[in-house]
Amino acid sequence: QVQLVETGGGLVQPGGSLRLSCAASGFTSDWYAIGWFRQAPGKEREGVSCIASTDGSTYYLDSVKGRFTITRDNAKNTVYLQMNSLKPEDPAVYYCAAGENPFMCVYSNEVKNWGQGTQVTVSS
Q1: In whole angstroms, what is the distance from residue 97 CA to residue 111 CA?
Q2: In this structure, is the dihedral angle defined by the CA atoms of residues 36, 99, 78 and 7, taken in order, positive or negative?
Q3: CB-side exposure of 86: number of CA atoms within 13 Å?
Q4: Which residue has the higher pLDDT, 118 or 26?
Q5: Which value, to the nearest 10 degrees, does the dihedral of the CA atoms of residues 103, 107, 93, 15 take?
Q6: What is the pLDDT of residue 20?
Q7: With 80 as the cut, is the pLDDT of residue 4 above it?
Q8: Helix or strand (DSSP H, E) at 46
Q9: Alpha-carbon span 7 to 37, nearest angstrom
């Protein structure tokens, strides 16, 4: 059974940085995608960034391009989301997600597993 455990959320000032980590375990296939979604109060959950296990190709939501970077450490089975230049529109609960479709960041119904979520707050 796939398990996803997120850490790294918190409070940061506008323009600040945070790094989220997702420790993954239980994959039975080498073919998967893993990434981050977020959901702010009153808004739909949206795919922020995803990375494919096969070739490391990445997806970024337009509003985070150039500010957020997704990376993976295969030895530690961990995926990171480095978030820089955080803006007031970035606060949300951030969820780690995994699935078999490398396009799952766009098609959220392709997500097979969710983490418990971690809160990111941007405030001065």
Answers
A1: 6
A2: positive
A3: 23
A4: 118
A5: 50
A6: 98
A7: yes
A8: strand 46-52
A9: 14
Mean pLDDT for 46-55 is: 92
Q: pLDDT by residue (tens digit) across 55-103?
A: 889 999 999 999 999 999 888 889 999 999 999 999 999 999 999 888 8
Q: How far is CA 73 from CA 11, 41, 110, 120, 121, in A?
A: 25, 31, 23, 22, 26
Cα end-to-end distance, the chain, whole Å: 40
Residue 41: CB atoms within 10 Å: 7
Residue 110 has a pLDDT of 92
Q: Per DSSP, what are the bridge partners of residue 68?
A: 83
Dist CA 1 CA 40 (whole Å): 28
Mean confidence (pLDDT) of the chain: 93
Which residues are registered as beta bridge partners of 34?
A: 51, 98
Secondary structure letter of residue 42 according to DSSP: T
Residue 70 one-letter amino acid = I
Instruction: Please say whether the beta carbons of 96 and 81 come within 8 A.
Output: no
118: part of which helix (H) or strand (E)? strand 118-122
Residues linked to residue 92 through DSSP beta bridges, in sequence order: 120
